[in-house]
Design a protein that fits this description.
Length: 635
Amino acid sequence: MAAPAASGAAAMSRDAFRAAVTNTLERRLFFVPSFKIYGGVAGLYDYGPPGCAVKANVLASWRQHFVLAEGMLEVDCPCVTPEVVLKASGHVDKFTDLMVKDEKTGNCYRADHLLKDFCKDKLEKDQTLSPEKAEEYNRILAILDDLSAEQLGAKIREYGIVAPDTKNPLSDPYPFNLMFQTSIGPSGLSAGYMRPETAQGIFVNFKDLYYYNGNKLPFAAAQIGQAFRNEISPRQGLLRVREFTLAEIEHFVDPEDKSHPKFGDVSDLEFLMFPREDQMAGRSATRLKIGNAVSEGTANNETLGYFIGRVYLFLTQLGIDKDRLRFRQHLPNEMAHYAADCWDAEIECSYGWIECVGIADRSAYDLRAHSDKSGEKLEAHEKFAEPREVEKLVITPSKKELGLAFKGNQRMVLEALEAMGETEALDMKAALESKGEVEFKVCTLGKDVIIKKSMVSINIEKKKEHQRKFTPSVIEPSFGIGRIIYCLFEHCFYQRPGKTEDEQLNVFGFPPLVAPIKCTVFPLVKLEKFEVVAKKISKALTTAGISHIIDMTGNTIGKRYARTDEIGVPLAITVDNTTSVTVRDRDSKDQIRVEVDEVASVVKEVMDGQSTWADIMWRYPAHTASAAEDEEPEP
């Protein structure tokens, strides 16, 4: 029941295609701007009845595919989060974008977006652009995330970039924290924020979840919920909003064993992957088997690779076109200093390639950060059958000495020292013993610092251990549900000819899994005997758990078909007899005859994926469609 391959964005310009999709979505109440009668608020949208149904179906599929199939522990944590939690995670200090203001009106814009739009516009539209300038603009786009506030400001001034709405001059860029701040309780003394992600609620509950799981690793916790980001200049509809639904998984694993017992289930999957080496060399994404990507070291480990494969299966079963889905590896300048590897599932739509799912090996950063801030040890343990003598690397930074030397940057230097691997730490120990000081790169500061012998103690100690205590690593798949749904809307939308030559009818070719309504029931004409049969079928569909609507309006059957095709209903039942009825498929428009008492079970077979429409066509006699079906839909 997929949309015809020749349909969609390829048949018209991207802008025209997007306008057709958005117009249909808003007119049929999939979503609309929030508070519309008051002029609306940028970045806030309401889902209407069909939009709510699609979203509910996507989330139900997510739960089935991940939570149930993988035995995950689901939690539900508050949206309001105390400041101390987000201070520990780094959001209070670092969750910022660089902003510029229109110096006359005060309107705000993201500085990097203005520079990106300028460069892209020049590359796409300036026919007189020299090769040197084109290379310069491409280089800026490649390093955009690395530019400091000063560098961004310099480029904006150099290129004469002004406020897009008024052409007024812009201020220098400055950081703006994207979290919505609030206070908890009437005193106003307890600061809090609306959470920018759901993950922190899982991390702070690790100790209890580990106990609930029988003190065993690996295990995964999952959460679906609202998150909030005070975007500077929201745009692109549902793709960049200020309140949105996230579905996040935190898979806790032994950092010394990131194999996955079910990796073989996905290892032969082949799909578009875009490793960082190909990006940096200017090559395109290519089809790779995820098993090969892991074995060759392109993807860091089996657990990360397993989730990449599972994400691919989830998105394609929803209806995302596999040829417009790729997995792009983060470039070095995008990676957090603690991350082992990160990939984004990007879906192509009329806005370009959009990040919809992030799959990251976050190492042990999050649990360590909350352990340090809270004083609670968020650790796992492995008991040994016999005691083991082990050599342990012990890195002990001096907080006092680091504080005196680095003041407000003490924590970042301390974390970088503690995160050193054995080889790097032993090299530092040797240098400190011979020279008394050593240069040390702190990624979070973006520069080298001088570490003196008094600032850190590094030793290898022999100990007998009965168990091994360690901080688990975290593999995190994070799903932007609104972004996935918007891309799904575009991938499922197509137009087909109406009754007249220049008329186009809109269709959403949703798979049954996500279709907002599975079936419609139409009495062919307004006769009591047909209405009685329609109500009987409706009762049987309800008993079978099939969402449906009855349309007893006096419109022609063609108009009723067109109206339900436009909201993506896969099957329509036309009651034109008291003993048998016509069942029509949305995409092929093929029709069959089915006995009244069988029709609910036939619809359920198709909706549950037990049979395809082609299977059903073999079993039941075909019915010839009437010419009325090609009539235009109601406005």
